[in-house]
């Protein structure tokens, strides 16, 4: 009977030793892990404007009409991570009211001298040609006039 107990003790010791040597893969691990991440991306805007028309000539027909059109007078290049149209305030010289629109289409600055430029893909540059219409004040003289325009991005 002693021999049987001795074998059992050896078998138990061997099983215990094997259990300690095996990797811990048999231990249950959680099947799901939750991770909460938050990030803030600040809006940015880069733009440049190139004015192709530096001066213009007003004649008597322009004075009668009350305005002069300057097609493709400016090109604006806009790059931003903003995913909605960006508004630019348009200012002119001598208190002249200036209206700008995208050449051949697009929104005009009819309301409040704002030009809306739609950046198609966030982060990609968009170049747009602009037509300028100058509303001539009554005291405008026939002759050559200098054109100075300013585009100011509105808060975005």
Q: Main sheet?
A: 4 strands, antiparallel
CATH topology (fold) name of the domain at 45-153:
Immunoglobulin-like
Q: How much is the average pLDDT?
A: 77
The SSE order reads HEEHEEEEEEE
**Gyration radius from CA atoms, angstroms:** 37 Å
What percentage of residues falls in helices of 4 or more residues?
A: 10-25%
- Report the count of strand segments: 9
* CA-CA gap between termini: 92 Å
- The number of helices is 2
Strand order, main sheet: write it out: 1-3-7-5
CATH architecture of the domain at 45-153, please? Sandwich
Based on CA inertia axes, which overall geometry fits?
Answer: rod-shaped
Stretches where pLDDT is under 50 for at least 5 consecutive residues are: 1-6
Determine the structural class based on helices, strands and strand pairing. Answer: alpha+beta
Topology:
Blueprint: H1 2-21, E1 45-51, E2 55-58, H2 60-65, E3 67-80, E4 86-92, E5 97-102, E6 114-117, E7 126-135, E8 143-146, E9 149-153
Antiparallel strand pairs: 1-3, 2-8, 3-7, 4-6, 4-9, 5-7
């Amino acid at each position: 009977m002693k021999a049987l107990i001795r074998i059992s003790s050896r078998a138990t010791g061997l099983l215990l030793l094997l259990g300690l040597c095996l990797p811990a893969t048999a231990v249950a691990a959680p099947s799901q892990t939750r991770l909460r991440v938050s990030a803030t991306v600040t809006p940015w805007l880069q733009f440049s404007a190139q004015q192709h028309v530096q001066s213009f000539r007003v004649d008597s027909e322009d004075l009668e009409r009350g305005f002069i059109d300057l097609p493709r007078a400016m090109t604006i290049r806009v790059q931003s991570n903003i995913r909605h149209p960006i508004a630019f305030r348009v200012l002119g010289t001598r208190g002249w009211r200036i209206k700008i629109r995208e050449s051949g289409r697009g929104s005009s600055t009819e309301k409040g001298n704002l030009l809306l430029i739609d950046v198609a893909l966030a982060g990609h540059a968009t170049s747009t040609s602009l037509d300028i219409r100058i509303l001539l004040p009554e005291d405008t003289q026939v002759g050559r006039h200098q054109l100075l325009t300013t585009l100011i991005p509105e808060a975005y």
